[in-house]
Amino acid sequence: QVHLVESGGGLVQAGDSLRLSCAASGRTGSSYGIGWFRQAPGKERENIAVISWIGGATWVLGSVKGRFTISKDNAANTVYLQMNDLQSEDTAVYYCASKDIKDGPYQDWGQGTQLPVSS
């Protein structure tokens, strides 16, 4: 099992930037990569970015591309989500999750961090 802890959330204003962190521990050697997800009030959870531990291949959801960037620090077993020009529609609980296979399901999830954006 991979244990994940998100941090960095908190109240921000529209236009602000913020970086979320996802610290991984446990069986990180079995993890293919980390995905960031968010769930806004009353909406389905959506996958917004993914990065592989080996090679650093990334994917970012089209609607946030250009504002959100995913990166990693293998030595620290940490994945980051840099978010710029935050808008009220970015208000959500943000989660990170780990998967063992590139096209497989996410098996391990963090507890989430709240990001309210005031307009």
Protein topology:
Layout: E1 2-7, E2 12-13, E3 18-26, E4 33-39, E5 46-52, E6 58-60, E7 68-73, E8 78-83, E9 92-99, E10 108-109, E11 113-115, E12 117-118
Parallel strand pairs: 2-12
Antiparallel strand pairs: 1-3, 3-8, 4-5, 4-9, 5-6, 7-8, 9-10, 9-11
What does this structure look like?
Helix content is 0%, strand content 51%. It is mainly beta and 119 residues long. Strands 4, 5, 6, 9, 10 and 11 form a 6-stranded antiparallel sheet that branches. The radius of gyration is 13 Å and the shape is globular. It is built from no helices and 12 strands. A hairpin with an 8-residue loop joins strand 9 and strand 10.
Could you give a short description of this structure?
This protein has 119 residues and is mostly beta strands.
Short key terms for the protein model shown above:
119 residues, 6-stranded antiparallel sheet, 4-stranded antiparallel sheet, 0% helix, 51% strand
Biggest sheet: strands, sense, closure? 6 strands, antiparallel
As an assembly, this protein is single chain
Integer average pLDDT: 97
Structural class: mainly beta
In whole angstroms, how far apart are the ends? 39 Å
Strand content range: over 45%
What letter string, H or E per element, gives the SSE order? EEEEEEEEEEEE
Unreliable stretches covering 5 or more consecutive residues: none
**C-alpha geometry:** globular
From the alpha carbons, calculate the radius of gyration and give it in angstroms: 13 Å
Q: Count every helix, treating DSSP H or I runs of 4 or more residues as helices.
A: 0
Can you count the beta strands? 12
